[in-house]
Amino acid sequence: MTARTHADRRPLVAAAAAAVILLLASGMGYRLLAQYLDRPSDSVPLPPGTLTRGLPLQIGGWQGTEVPVEESVIEAADCNDYVSRAYVRRNEPVRLWIAYGVRARDLMPHRPEVCYPGGGWTLDDTRSVELLRGSGQPLECRLYRFSRGGFGSGEMVVLNYYIVDGQYCPDVSLLRSKAARGASGVRYMAQVQIVSSANGHVTLETAARSVRAFAADSAQAIRAVMPDAPVAGPARAVPGAANQAAAPK
Asked: Over the stretch 195-212, which tens digit does the pLDDT of each residue have?
């Protein structure tokens, strides 16, 4: 092999070496991030059933019933505690799912835009919405619309938000920012999902209006069962809040 041939191969060898180093660094980076998110912190685990006992079945005009969940689903959700209920107000049914955990690395992967497509649903639309909680404070959420064809076809609307150490966030950006700032981990995080399906009696617009209305009505009750819930004070009426929460965007 000539000296020229050796020279011609040098860039390829250097590129291959760089790729290997990058691959190893990426793998090491992932492992370090996983260890970072998993290391001990001032976490606040809850005994199973705490949220279910604390969250009322009657929330405003909504009446709830417990919805059993298979143990395999709970294990897959990687949560420390949870709430699984169906609520209805007049002819507006919604499904509430709250997953509570203390390890960010367990709950971060369970996002609507990941899990529902993994279950065969197509993400048709996603947008940010801002509602008003009972205290008059804003509640930022993400609203997703999914559809599925073939057997078991249908459409549904999913509203999602997080409570991280008492702070609200529509996605996992708050958790990522905590890691980027070198925080010692989160004390707790709770993922709140409210779902309504469209069918012959419920349109997508009605389903979207229902999940938004329930999110606004239930936010204070959900916040009250978190470990660092603020001391309850006199409720402050917000003119037009109910209409704003229910109005479609």
From this structure: 999 987 889 999 999 999
